[in-house]
Amino acid sequence: MRVHSSSQKPRRRLSPVKEGPLNERVYQVIREGIYSGRFKPGEMIRELRLAAELQVSQATVREALLRLERASLVSRIPNKGTQVTILSEKQFRERMELRCLLEGIAAVEAAKRMTEEDFQELKRLERAFSQAWSRKAYFDLSQAEFQFHHLIWERSQNESLCQVLDFLVTPMFAFMSVVRSLNPGGSPGMPHAAITDALREGGEGKIKEAIANHIRRYRGKSIEQYLRPIRGRREPAIATRSSADHARVHV
After folding, report:
1. Of the candidates 177, 31, 220, 200, which has an alpha carbon nearest to the alpha carbon of residue 112?
2. Which of 54, 117, 190, 245 satisfies CB 3.0 to 4.6 Å to 241 for a cystine?
3. CA 239 to CA 9: how far, in whole Å?
4. Whole-angstrom Cα distance, residue 127 to residue 54?
5. Dist. CA 159–CA 107, nearest whole Å
6. Which of 46, 35, 74, 18 shows the shortest CA–CA distance to 241?
7. CA distances from 74 to 18, 44, 250 (A)
8. Which domains does the chain have, with CATH numbers?
9. 209: burial class by Cβ within 10 Å (0-12, 13-18, 19+)?
10. CA 236 to CA 231: how far, in whole Å?
11. C-alpha distances in angstroms, 142 versus 50, 81, 104, 151, 192?
12. 195 alpha-carbon distance from chain centroid
């Protein structure tokens, strides 16, 4: 899908990476930039410019982008470079339906293995999600939600299923993180307590129903409604920016 803008503003610069294992920190900074909307869906990421902003080598940036590509957050376009993943309405709906099916299977298997400690962690992530929403901290919100679902996938102990869900769902979480930031008055979505309760009580039908109800919470609305705020906001691949536009990224 092509996204065009008639009034584009320069993307805020990233701050140099100064602490921690370099490769991991560069990966996390770019990943957070995608989830926060600093890098818009469909935007081209320029390795050389990004390396200069972060004050690291181009090879380090390239390695981070390869990891992000494996996570399905970016894609390589021949003769052009790396682009932040953007989903069409059709792709979003297809992934949603596949996720309903596969996560339901994972959750049924997870329920057989979950410990009391696991349930406490799900409750903690539910609280983290609610707190992030009240602060309008959309990156933190998406991370709490992703960790909640990822814990369920992991407890299925089906590594192949986890990998497929990671590939399908990760760009959906990033996409919705951007959408939420552009729609601050919107709804956070259905609470996660129904999933936790179903997992605790057991029963294949009840678990799958809880998962499906949660994932399909957007079914009554057109995905175009979520895509619309991103249109007209996509930023140019290359822009001139002053040092005053530097974004503060904690690294």
Report:
1. 200
2. 245
3. 8
4. 33
5. 13
6. 46
7. 24, 9, 22
8. 22-86+231-245 (1.10.10.10), 89-227 (1.20.120.530)
9. middle
10. 13
11. 24, 27, 20, 14, 13
12. 20
Contact 156, 109 (CB under 8 A): yes
Q: How far is CA 103 from each of CA 2, 74, 98, 164, 205, rounded to the nearest angstrom?
A: 30, 23, 8, 10, 13
Distance, CA of 63 to CA of 55 (rounded, Å): 15
Tokens of 91: 């792709």
Three-class DSSP category at 84? strand
Give me the tens of pLDDT residue by residue for the chain, a chain 251 residues long.
Answer: 333 443 445 555 565 555 558 889 999 999 999 988 888 888 999 999 999 999 999 999 999 999 999 988 999 998 889 999 988 888 888 999 999 999 999 999 999 999 999 999 999 999 999 999 888 888 888 899 999 999 999 999 999 999 999 999 988 888 888 777 776 666 666 679 999 999 999 899 999 999 999 988 765 554 565 566 555 544 433 222 323 233 333 33
Q: If you search the block for the tokens 């129904």, which residue do you land on?
A: 194
Q: In whole angstroms, how far apart are CA 55 and each of 19, 36, 61, 66, 248?
A: 12, 21, 10, 19, 15
8 Å CB contact between 41 and 231: no
Type of residue numbered 150 = H
**H/E run at residue 164:** helix 159-182
